[in-house]
Design a protein that fits this description.
This protein is of the alpha+beta class and 311 residues long. Helix content is 28%, strand content 21%. Strand 3 and strand 4 form a beta hairpin.
Length: 311
């Protein structure tokens, strides 16, 4: 039987509640649970401002299920590792366009977005007096949907305001890691020994949220980055003079967001038993050891012309 425990604090005017399984409804508004802790980064709950809604799956649980079952995609080995040996390549990416669209999606019964509902359901971090505003995360050009998602996966979403203050926007995640601002922001709210662990964990896993965005006839220099190529398969076809290699690669249809590229790849679509609808294209990769390391995409080649080109 679900139950709730109220704890009143007249000195700070906070209501704390412990909830089991279901949200508590009070005076036509619902709040969500948290137990106050003396540890840095702990949460306190503040009541919400949205009318009572029918019981549904909490946004946090919905997010975790979608991240695992739909948005996380396995990709081909990045470095042609021997399949008989252990591989250290990151072989997973996140479908960030679907993830970002989901956060912006409106909840049908209330009209609020998934992001707004998540912030409403989430307890307020103890270092804040008010909840984080949705516009702080969804602001155009400075959105933090991917940042929030990664922190949520790591169980550190209560620090999203610190990352926003440090300008850790989605569009900036692939930049050089200058973390002085973030380090100062975190030092104010977590124990000193945790700061570097949080930063290291974030940078280690952020690359899954920064897959290369493919466009028609693109040429991009990936030297010095850890950007993950979004290919579900990668087969080497030939080498050109020892400085470049040609690959036959495949990408899942829904990972192609560029309309011009999607149109060019229509004739190369086929159904794969494991990955569903995929498009095939060729990749010309220059020697990674040269200063002008460039990756070029030749999306107008089909399987038949690949054979002729590499013969």
């Amino acid at each position: 039987m679900p139950r709730a425990i109220y704890l009143s604090s007249t000195s700070k005017g906070l209501w704390l509640r412990k909830r089991y399984h279901l949200p508590l409804v009070c005076a036509s508004y619902h709040a969500y649970p948290a137990i106050r802790s003396s540890q840095p980064g702990a949460h306190v709950t503040m009541s919400g401002a949205y009318p009572q809604q029918p019981t549904s799956v909490p946004i946090r649980e919905e997010f975790e299920d979608l991240l695992e079952s739909q948005w996380t995609r396995r990709v081909a080995c990045q470095n042609e590792c021997d399949l008989n040996k252990s591989c250290s390549c990151q072989r997973k990416i996140v479908h960030v366009h679907a993830l970002q669209a989901w956060w912006k999606k409106r909840v049908s019964e209330s009209g609020i977005t998934k992001l707004e509902r998540f912030l409403h359901e989430s307890p307020v971090p103890i270092h804040l007096s008010l909840p984080v505003k949705p516009t702080r995360i969804s602001k155009s050009g400075q959105s933090c949907f991917c940042t929030l998602s990664l922190l949520l996966k790591q169980g550190r979403d209560h620090l999203i305001d610190r990352f926003c203050e440090a300008n850790m926007y989605d569009d900036y995640l692939v930049r050089s890691e200058n973390d002085q601002i973030l380090r100062r922001q975190l030092a104010d709210v977590v124990q000193r020994g945790e700061v570097e662990v949080i930063i290291e964990d974030f940078h280690k896993e952020k690359w899954a949220y920064c897959p290369l965005n493919l466009t028609l006839d693109m040429a991009v220099n990936l030297q010095g980055t850890k950007v993950i190529l979004p290919f579900c398969s990668k087969i080497k076809l030939s080498s050109k003079g020892g400085t470049a290699s040609v690959y036959w690669v495949a990408v899942q249809k829904d990972l192609v967001s560029d309309n011009a590229l999607a149109l060019a790849l229509q004739d190369s679509l086929y159904n794969d038993d494991e990955f569903g609808e995929v498009s095939r294209l060729t990749l010309c990769e220059r020697n990674k050891l040269t200063p002008s390391s460039v990756t070029r995409w030749c999306s107008n080649l089909t399987a038949s012309t690949i054979s002729e080109t590499s013969s």
